[in-house]
Amino acid sequence: xxxxxxxxxxxxxxxxxxxxxxxxxxxxxxxxxxxxxxxxxxxxxxxxxxxxxxxxxxxxxx
Length: 62
Description:
By secondary structure, this protein is α+β, with helices and mostly antiparallel strands.
């Protein structure tokens, strides 16, 4: 799995990933786990990419 630690909406590098919302795009070794600064930027990303992902799992930390 590929892990990105820069919010794709804001361009901000992230730290303390355990508390950040994320999306997993794809599956297997080439799946991409994308972390976001906030739930708001995660939702913006999902709205902008609606229908463009074949296997997106949307997750929020507990």
